[in-house]
Amino acid sequence: MDHLDHLVYATPELGRTVEELTGRGIALSPGGPHPGLGTRNHLAALGDHAFLEVIGPDPDQPEPATPRPFGIDELIAPRLVTWAIQVPDLDLALERARAAGHEPGDAVPMSRRRPDGVLLSWRLAFPPDNQGGLIPFVIGWGDTPHPSRGAATGTRLVSLRGEHPDPGRLGLVFAALDTELEVTEAAEPALVAELATVSGTVVLR
Fold first, then answer.
1. Edge-to-edge, what's the strand order for the sheet holding 190-197?
2. Is the CB of residue 3 less than 8 Å from the CB of residue 49?
3. What is the CATH number of the domain that holds 11?
4. What residues contact 13, with CB distance under 8 A and at least 6 apart?
């Protein structure tokens, strides 16, 4: 199974959401801005080299030329929008997924600078249709230090599951990505994470 890399919790108001999550027991550390995208993030380590990314508009950047990622511009409340799996060889992983019948999207290079000045560079691929966030995007960090190493500790991922009107249709996609996710039937797609924190259990969806 390809390794869970991180969960993406998107919000229209980053400062307020970081304050709210901190109050619920999730310690977060500043990640940094995404130049040109109009966003920045805060991170929490989840154990097993995975992390929670809380991402929202960056007030210190001008309005981006294109919509912010993860549908942030349309959000009216924070939401667990998707998840990512980490692969050692991104190009090979994308090739294998296509051969198995899943279009994972094209690889895109990205970077951001940490508050301590270290430049992180990575490549990722977003699927054209992620089925309401249940189909993960694929990421490769190369030689860059993994963000989970410097993220705030004290939070642990207990479980990750999905809800979807037709869970059966997602099975072949997960197989093509060499990953898995428990998905139960529900009226609307949703990603649900249960986290253990110093203040107790927190559920994000």
1. 182-185, 156-164, 190-197, 200-204
2. yes
3. 3.10.180.10
4. 56, 57
CA-CA distances (angstroms) from residue 22 to 17, 28, 152?
8, 7, 11
Total number of domains in the chain: 1
- Identify the CA nearest to 164 among candidates 194, 127, 137, 134: 134
Q: How far is it, in rounded angstroms, from Cα 128 to Cα 96?
A: 17
pLDDT tens figures, 155-180: 999 999 999 999 998 999 999 999 99
pTM: 0.96
| Cα angle 83-155-28, degrees, rounded to a multiple of 5 | 80
Q: How many Å apart are CA 124 and CA 70, to the nearest integer?
A: 14
Residues written for the chain? 205
What is the chain's mean pLDDT, rounded?
A: 96
Distance CA 74, CA 182 (A): 27
Domain limits for position 46: 3-204
